[in-house]
Write a structure and sequence with these properties.
Length: 454
């Protein structure tokens, strides 16, 4: 090796000379350390100074089976020596064919067609365009709008951001965006005192019905994050909402787009969140965990009737038009196939049930904490809502950045916790054990004590 210094400090200094990071006010790095990671093993990340961090957020919700997973790495190495990439128009390859077959096999019934893209936002763009274009091909060009839920997040490209309602990401770019029709989220945390999650869902379905009565003629689709609105603060809702949404979409002639980019692949306790409501959407968007967290890839699954709305003589001009250079990348497809193989070979969901129960037991005492307004959990996603005033559920002023204190405490104590504002959450890779969950919870509890002090 050459003798370039590779300490944390040396790498961070070089990074900050040229690299611009996502979701970051770069000025923060004058006081918040930038952490250079040199390798990963299991749920752990190792920095250039040899310090270890337990990845409590699965590296932005992507990792399922650990970093540098040996099975996925071996499949990738073999694929890299065979076929790294090929144009996906006019040409195809077995990894994409097998992956489409596997996705159709494991997805909710009725989803028979698979369109690949290369990240979550792109999958949302595809679903929005495909829904609009499907209606257009059927002679309903007047349908040009989308219904989204308050507090939703579907990505940050302009189309995906258009149907998102997280102010932090949306506000600045609002002049550039389409205007969605916002339906109130069935978020149980925002329910009235004493209202059960099922009651909130029923009430919100009534409000959605009223919106559709007025707008269905101009609406292509309703897009939702099933069971958990993740980036919006890990807000959770009752599965009844999804069942009712399916019925309303059928009644009013609009599509149901399920964005399972974050919640798919076992996060909520079932392989797909929609299963818990026994429904199939018209479009299912997948990414993040799709490759086990190794490579960018996304897929939009849809139904045979949607596919048939595009299938015609070339001259009819009905073909779907959306293409990315790296569509169906063979390496990414191989990583996804190996990820699905792990689900087949190992009792992943069953093991996760035990881990989720342990996490729930460990978080239970936080309910009594004077600055915790809510502890909620759906499968392998758990969240703790920090507030200034528990009785009134009044948040801390955002400028105080209490959650950032938890992040900094985590870094200093070997845990990657990256709160969403003041929502401290746990979304670990499925390969953690109970001791590692204990480490995450203990670190978070100590971090919370520091965050709420003064
Ligand atoms: C992360 C996310 C996206 C966007 O995916 P990217 O790959 O980051 O573009 C879309 N929808 C949901 C629900 C997400 O959590």
């Amino acid at each position: 090796m050459d003798d370039t210094p590779r300490s944390n400090a040396a790498l961070a200094a070089r990074d900050l000379r040229h690299v611009w990071h996502p979701c970051t006010q770069m000025h923060d790095h004058e006081r918040v350390p930038l952490v250079p990671i040199v390798r990963g093993e299991g749920a752990w990340l190792v920095d250039a100074d040899g310090r270890r961090y337990l990845d409590g957020i699965s590296s932005w919700w992507t990792n399922l089976f650990g970093h540098a997973n040996p099975r996925i790495a071996a499949a990738l190495a073999e694929q890299a020596r065979t076929l790294e990439h090929v144009i996906f128009a006019g040409f195809t390859h077995e990894p994409a064919i097998r992956l489409a077959e596997e996705l159709v096999r494991v997805a909710p019934p009725g989803l028979a067609r698979v369109f690949f893209a290369d990240n979550g936002s792109a999958a949302v763009e595809v679903a929005l365009k495909m829904s609009f274009h499907c209606w257009l091909n059927r002679g309903h060009g007047e349908k040009t709008r989308f219904v989204a839920l308050t507090g939703s997040y579907h990505g940050e490209t302009l189309g995906a951001l258009s149907v998102s309602d997280v102010a932090l990401y949306r506000r600045t770019y609002a002049p550039l965006l389409l205007t969605p029709i916002l339906a109130p989220s069935p978020d149980a945390y925002e329910g009235a005192p004493g209202e059960t999650p099922a009651q909130v869902a029923a009430r919100r379905l009534g409000e959605l019905r009223a919106l559709l009565e007025r707008h269905a003629h101009e609406v292509c689709a309703v897009i939702v994050e099933p069971l958990v609105q993740c980036a919006g603060g890990m807000r959770m809702h009752h599965p009844d909402y999804l069942a009712g949404l399916r019925r309303l979409c059928d009644e009013f002639g609009v599509h149901f787009i399920a964005d399972e980019i974050a919640v798919g692949f076992g996060r909520t306790g079932t392989l797909f969140a929609c299963e818990q409501a026994g429904v199939s959407p018209d479009f299912l968007c997948l990414s993040k965990g799709l490759t086990g967290g190794t490579l960018p890839l996304s897929a939009v699954l849809t139904t045979e009737p949607v596919y048939q709305a595009f299938y015609a003589e070339y001259s009819a001009g009905k073909a779907f038009l959306h293409s990315h250079s790296y569509t169906g990348n063979p390496l990414a497809c191989r990583a996804a196939l190996e990820t699905l193989a792990i689900f087949r070979d190992e009792p992943v969901l069953e093991r996760n049930r035990g881990l989720a129960a342990h996490l729930a037991r460990r978080l239970e005492p936080l309910r009594a904490h004077p600055h915790v307004a809510d502890v909620r959990q759906t499968g392998m996603i758990a969240a703790v809502e920090l507030v200034a005033d528990k009785a009134a559920r009044r948040p801390f002023p955002a400028a105080e950045r209490r959650g950032l204190r938890v992040y900094l405490h985590g870094l200093a104590h070997g845990a990657l916790l990256r709160p969403l504002g003041d929502v401290i959450y746990f979304m670990p890779p499925y390969v953690v054990d109970e001791g590692e969950l204990d480490h995450l919870v203990d670190t978070a509890v100590a971090g919370i004590a520091r965050a709420v002090a003064g």
